[in-house]
Design brief:
By secondary structure, the chain is α/β, with parallel strands linked by helices. The protein contains six helices and four strands; from the N terminus they run βαβββααααα. Helix 3 packs across helix 4, helix 3 crosses helix 5 and helix 5 packs antiparallel against helix 6. The two termini are 13 Å apart. The structure holds zinc ion.
Amino acid sequence: MKLENPYNLPIVDAFIRLYGELIADKCAWKDRTVRFLPLPDYDNKFRDIIVRYRDAIYISSSEIGQLGLTRPEIFASLAHELGHIVYGMQPFGVDAETRADGFAAELGLASQMISVIEKIIQSRRFRGITSQLVQRIQFLQHLEKPEVFQECYYG
Ligand SMILES: [Zn+2]
């Protein structure tokens, strides 16, 4: 899998420097490219923080700022979205969010992923799914071996 940062976003640069090799080792898809793109406010009516569409991951710097995410927490969020791409079509019994969290955990970002979810709960922006968010925290807390999801699925 190739990771591209056409807008040279500094946080994405750092993410690729730190985790790019590990991700390439996990997912040796030579013909698949994921692009990281900015999400401007005028295009963000749902106030998404980091959101994926097909093989692109859009990043709202203003929503990240409002939520107060730290750099490692942003890395965990980027890994989570990549996890949706990596495990997108895999027919596991766990739900898609948990699978994506599992990918962040595989990169060593489980505790950062937990603190992202805690900040989302505290912000009360997704009040309807608080119990699902709590379940995701519990999953990450009890993940002893993050390598539960081994194979990348070309979906
Ligand atoms: Zn997700």
